[in-house]
Amino acid sequence: MAGERASDVDARASLRVGREAEARLADGRRLAYVVHGDESGFAVVLEHGTPASRLGLGFTDAPARARGVRVICPDRPGIGRSDPARHRTLLEWADDVAGLMDALGIDRFGVVGYSCGGPHALACAARLPGRVGAVGLMAGSGPLDRPAAFEGLNAVDRWLAMTSARRPRLAALALRLQAAVARRAPGIALRGLMREVGDADRRRLAVLGPELMRVVLAEATRQGPDGVIDDYRRWVAPWPFALDAIDAPVDIWQGDDDRGIPMHHAEDLAARLPRATLHRLAGEGHFSIAAHFDAILDSLLAAALTDAPRSTAST
After folding, report:
1. Which of 31, 32, 287, 301 is an S-S bond match for 201, by CB 3.0 to 4.6 Å?
2. Bond from prior residue into 51 cis (ω within 30 degrees of 0)
3. Strand 69-74 and strand 30-37: pairing?
4. pLDDT in tens, 103-155
């Protein structure tokens, strides 16, 4: 449309649905996923945030096509259309990703973790060092194993994370209410979210509109809240791998106006990962960071396609 900013067009692309598909894992469970980009290209698994799902990640499509990359966005167990598997650990999720890649005939791939997808992406690098060539973190959440880790986190996410771990029935009630509002009154849900974010995120959310809440939040709880609760539990629990043992190169992308995951999470991860590079994005927030997916892919590809394969031993 004449007069539109390119960033507005790119933002609305987030709501486009790519090719829907599913795979059967070795134990018979169904794992749902969406594919964006070049279906014959180098594979990159994009780990969604929480509460979220495989949907709403269409901003990856154009940058991926331009670079010959296939972006695979799976639902974690119990989320969206993936079969439930309660209380799986981060490393067990990495096994599911390995099973998905086996089903697709893919050996080596990259991983990007968005928000609470960050721990899941790092788990893949820890568990599958011979297969994960590089990692990108977009506003990625760090471990909550230090006194200052909770400072600056979004208040709702902080409450849901701790309540999921300690009082899961109460968390389930809150998530059901949140999902009901997203389905029936998405405009109210969006206005509530916009009050919690900075200027760059408000601009992006305004372009996306209320449909974002239906696409992302309602789909996350399609089967109920258990999958989202497990996501939060995995974040809060001690991570079952050592960050300093991850050998893959990790590019960390963090906006300095992110009101959901603060900069000190990125700084902590950069200090603890042996091969990390921190990219500070001035004025960007938790949602507007998606506009940098082209640069995120460029750095991941440069690392994944030039780094020598490593041992296949599991952590």
Report:
1. 287
2. yes
3. antiparallel
4. 999 999 999 999 999 999 999 999 999 999 999 999 999 999 998 999 999 99
CATH code, 172 = 3.40.50.1820
Per-residue 3-state assignment (H helix, E strand, C coil) for 38-104: CCCCEEEEEECCCCCCCCCCHHHHHHHHHCCEEEEEECCCCCCCCCCCCCCCHHHHHHHHHHHHHHC
**313 belongs to a structural domain:** no
Evaluate whether residue 315 is within a structural domain.
Answer: no
Question: Number of structural domains, the chain?
Answer: 1
Q: Which helix (H) or strand (E) holds 184?
A: helix 168-184
Give residue 311's pLDDT.
36
For residues 105 and 132, give the distance between their C-alpha atoms in angstroms, rounded to a whole number. 14
The pLDDT value given to residue 313 = 32
Does 312 fall in a domain?
Answer: no
Assess contact for 308 and 290: CB atoms under 8 A. no
Q: Please provide the size of the chain in residues.
A: 315
Instruction: Find the range with the poorest average confidence among 8-17, 21-30, 190-199.
Output: 8-17
pTM above 0.90, yes or no: yes
| Number of H-type helices and E-type strands within the chain | 13, 8
Residue 311 lies in a domain: no
Helix (H) or strand (E) holding 300: helix 293-304
pLDDT 10s digits, 44-89: 999 999 999 999 999 999 999 999 999 999 999 999 999 999 999 9
Strands of the 250-255 sheet, one edge to the other: 19-24, 30-37, 69-74, 42-47, 109-114, 132-138, 250-255, 276-281
d(CA 281, CA 228): 28
159: containing domain: 6-304
